[in-house]
Amino acid sequence: MAFSISSRAVAAAALLVALCCCGGIGLPTPAAAGRIDEGLEVTWGDGRGSVSPDGETLTLSLDHTSGSGFRSRDTYLFARADMQIKLVPNNSAGTVTTFYFISEGPWDVHDEVDLEFLGNVSGQPYTLHTNVFANGNGGKEQQFHLWFDPTTDFHTYSIEWTNQHIMVLVDGTPIREFKNHADRGVPYPSSQRMRLYGSLWDAEDWATQGGRVKTDWSQAPFAAQYRNFTAASSPSSSSAYGQEMDAAAQQAMKWARDNYMVYDYCADSKRFPQGVPPECSMH
Description:
Largest sheet: 8 strands, antiparallel
Structural class: mainly beta
Strand content: 35-45%
Radius of gyration: 18 Å
Distance between the termini: 35 Å
Oligomer: single chain
Shape: globular
Order of helices and strands: HEEEEEEEEEEEEEEHE
Strand order of the largest sheet: 1-4-13-6-7-8-9-15
């Protein structure tokens, strides 16, 4: 099915922005002036990751030899991170563009909050793949299509990680909330510092339609752009973080999930024949 945005969806999205602005979530504020490499450093790719001369944009590229990636210079224990990203245009099948938190200790007990943008053939929507790991336990995938073309302009993707919840937002609209139910036996990332990472890499074995569509290397090099990175640490007691969503925010998230969620582990009875994980029924 070709990717198109109906006038109804555009109108709904405009209403949604109004709801968010009035409802206390707010659209992200612009980043303070400064070079993006003051907060981020390219860590791999043998020159395939670069920062523009003015310091505003970090570009990652991928060819048949290698992808590239960066990481934040700081680590965080509870933070709000915002990044504007313009994804790989045209036929991006097989490619994955990422922005995520991950701890740097032993893998078997690692924490992670993933945003992975799975490429697709021209004219079809990107899939935003999200997941949460705590103490090495993951498998909490939710996937979404976006209500705009993420390759023609920059859009803001945010991860809010507090002692109360993890929230994923797209242009200020919440699409996912994972609450802290550690007191009820559900692992939650709350004790390990995490660093922010980003990458562009080849995952043709699984990224697009389960690996059925492979990377077209005649389209290489592929490139994704990042700008306006902000990350603010937050103590769990901060009044600016961890608040319950108000009615407008809840309505905005319901709209996004009802219209654009394409996979939810909590609804996958084939995967969990003995019953879905316990947090799926917790509020």
